[in-house]
Amino acid sequence: MSQQNSSIQNIFLTALTCVLMGGGIGAVSNMINGAVSPYYFKTTMNWGFQAIWMASVAQGILEGLFHGVFFAIIFTIGFGMITKGKADYAFAFKHILHIAIIVLCCYTIGGLLAMMLVRLSPEFYRSHFPWTPTDVLEQIKYAWVGGSIWGEILGGILGLVIGLLNVKNNWANKVNDVP
Length: 179
Known about the structure:
Layout: H1 3-36, H2 38-44, H3 52-83, H4 89-120, H5 122-128, H6 136-177
């Protein structure tokens, strides 16, 4: 296989991995969130049916794939430009995994911060999210889901920036190490 075909294949696999990683993260996060607070999805999505958990997982996959496409476009272009198409897929995959870890950490932090906020000031939280349940445990569960989703989205943006910076730095180190 020629160098050009290999480069195109690596770029394609990088983009595909970004999209699939987005769908996977969306599925896993909504598996958790749908189990934690079906009420969140019932109110925010205006769902009036029984299979909310399954629908929330499907929604997570759909939104994750959508965000994955958006992420793939930016990351793959940046990755290709930084490495001039010379990096192998393993190099890209390592960076995508690091970004996924950042997203999942931000998902967790966002959920925890929202839970703290709803406990510190339930009135403030309800004034900004009037459909928040009045029961304390349900408030906490509802806040987790909303906060974790926002954390996940912000984590994707943060992960993209950090990921491309890491690609740039690691590629420069890798290129400079080669005689």
